[in-house]
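If it is no trouble, can you show me the amino acids of a protein and the tokens describing how it folds?
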Amino acid sequence: MPDATITIDMEKTCQGCGEPGAMPNGLCMACAADKLVTLQMHIDKADLKLAKAALDNEDGNPVLNCLLVRDDTIVAADGFAVVVREKSGEAGSINRGEVMIPLNIVGLLKLGKDEHVEIVETDEEDKTANIMRGMLTMASVTFKPREGTYPDYRQLFPAAPNRTWVSMDIELLRNTLKALPGEGAIDIGIVDPKTPVELRMGDEDGDRTYALMMPMLRPEEYRPRWFKGREQ
């Protein structure tokens, strides 16, 4: 079972302001925020969706079975892939500190429309994840962060100044990948930013599937077509 508890008790008053709704540390969320020094995190629905898709669900390196939030950067990884999301704007500017959220706690953070997660310190050891809708706290979970040192994921990114970047229409890419049959490996061929990207794969019956996708051309960011209309 996940090591998590509902932490707001509306029958207990805050030791700071006397208002109902105290956490185990005796403070309400407003007073706890006033005492906040080193940790303040804002995680939205898009962050969680990406993280849950990338997190390792098997027992392996325990450090990887967590979501790393370090200032304005959110990292999820397993033994085969790393996903890094850098926050910007208002959400990124308010984030400060570092915490590794265990995988079972990430699974508890289910967000509805217009909801986000705020993580604050409750005491020296525990952290609190609050599911917020605007300024209203919908649910609250106390957890112990994962201990250890997160691997230096930045070393995995190749230092290749001459790498080729190809811009793809995300809906076209998503729909094409969904349409490909079978499971297993897919080969991706990239020549240059203006050349169609080639996908190919085989299935267990020996059939092979090929797909070509036109890239987006920058700075105009439009996708050219092979066929503009049937000639009369």
